[in-house]
């Protein structure tokens, strides 16, 4: 299956996806602006605030927090109830990008068309900005006022598991190891599951929690299966689009582009099947369905 073909069906999906990202993204941007809108920081810490806001408000598709809100919505919840969970996810994602770009990590000077955080605020400033975003994210999720204390506790535990030493941080550690070693295909996929999939998985989980699903609800297991497939497809599409230009371990080290496209399409089909089995409210599930198809078809 070709990823990018200029036909009417894909164009329609892209246009719809952009509308969905814009609709939910505006809610997220407004909440983040509210959380980080203060201007009365002491002069000694003003640079920290500027560094945090520089990366947090620098654009991006907001895919992960949009999943939080759209999953909550399709399960019958009010998406505004999940805004603090969505903000926490985006803050953790942004922290990870700031730290990934550091010279001691991936050493990237550009992010989203702008100089990376450390190029503007220095390495120490970037480290502190990432530290602040990560730490504050847990406080925002724990103190969310539109959800119960028990739901907030589940959210904080899930975020810790997804972002910590057995999740995203483990994925980055494996990525650094991969800079010096050749990984097996299974080791590479495990790296992807930790570094990329876990944050997408927790985004779906938080949306379900905000909507009122309990951990024993069979629909939740189906939604997490959906998330696992979407997350892995997302990373494989990234590898296809990058074409391994950075010379690092990637999925195309083991498969042709056609094989990778076919596997990403299979994962997307599996995700959509699990989504349908979870029995969301049909008319409210369309945004999640459209985003899932668009993630397969995107060209950037």
Describe the structure.
Helix content is 70%, strand content 1%. The protein is mostly helical. The chain has one domain: Farnesyl Diphosphate Synthase (Orthogonal Bundle), CATH 1.10.600.10. A two-stranded antiparallel ribbon has the order 1-2. Helix 2 (46-56) crosses helix 5, helix 6 packs antiparallel against helix 8 (185-211) and helix 8 packs across helix 9 (218-242). The radius of gyration is 19 Å and the shape is globular. The two termini are 17 Å apart. Residues 1-7 have low confidence and may be disordered.
Q: Hey, roughly how much beta strand do the residues contain?
A: under 5%
Q: What is the distance, rounded to the nearest whole angstrom, between the alpha carbons of the first and last residues?
A: 17 Å
| Count of discrete alpha- or pi-helical segments spanning 4 or more residues | 11
Oligomer: single chain
Number of strands: 2
| Strand order across the largest sheet | 1-2
Give me the CATH fold name.
Farnesyl Diphosphate Synthase
Q: Would you identify the CATH architecture? A: Orthogonal Bundle
Task: Give the CATH H-level superfamily.
Answer: Farnesyl Diphosphate Synthase
Q: Spell the H/E element sequence.
A: HHHHEEHHHHHHH
Any idea of the CATH class?
A: Mainly Alpha
Largest sheet: 2 strands, antiparallel
Average pLDDT, rounded to a whole number, is 93
Radius of gyration: 19 Å
Secondary-structure-derived class: mainly alpha
Q: How much helical structure, as a percent, in the residues? A: over 70%
Flag low-confidence runs.
1-7
Using the alpha-carbon principal axes, give the shape: globular
């Amino acid at each position: 299956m070709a990823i990018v073909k200029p036909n009417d069906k894909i164009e329609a999906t892209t246009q719809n996806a952009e509308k969905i990202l814009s609709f939910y993204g505006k809610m997220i941007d407004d909440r983040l602006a509210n959380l980080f809108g203060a201007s009365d920081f002491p002069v000694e810490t003003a640079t920290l605030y500027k560094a945090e806001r520089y990366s947090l408000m620098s654009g991006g598709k907001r895919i992960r927090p949009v999943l939080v809100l759209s999953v909550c919505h399709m399960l019958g919840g009010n998406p505004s109830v999940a805004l603090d969970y969505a903000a926490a996810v985006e803050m953790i994602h942004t922290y990870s990008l700031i730290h990934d770009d550091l010279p001691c990590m991936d050493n990237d000077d550009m992010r989203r068309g702008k100089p990376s955080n450390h190029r503007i605020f220095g390495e120490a400033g970037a480290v502190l900005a990432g530290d602040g975003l990560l730490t504050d994210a847990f406080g925002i999720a724990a103190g969310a006022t539109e959800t119960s204390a028990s739901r907030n506790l589940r959210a904080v535990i899930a975020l810790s598991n997804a972002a910590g030493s057995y999740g995203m941080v483990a994925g980055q550690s494996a990525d650094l190891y991969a800079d010096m070693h050749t990984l097996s295909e299974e080791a590479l996929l495990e790296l992807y599951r930790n570094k990329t999939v876990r944050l997408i998985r927790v985004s779906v989980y938080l949306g379900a929690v905000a909507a009122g699903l309990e951990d024993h609800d069979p629909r939740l297991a189906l939604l997490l299966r959906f998330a696992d497939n979407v997350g892995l497809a997302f990373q494989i599409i990234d590898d296809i689009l990058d074409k391994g230009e950075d010379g690092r371990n990637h999925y195309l080290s083991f498969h042709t582009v056609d094989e990778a496209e076919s596997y990403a399409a299979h994962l997307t089909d599996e995700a959509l099947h699990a989504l349908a089995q979870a029995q969301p409210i049909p008319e409210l599930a369309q945004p999640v369905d459209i985003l899932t198809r668009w993630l397969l078809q995107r060209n950037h």
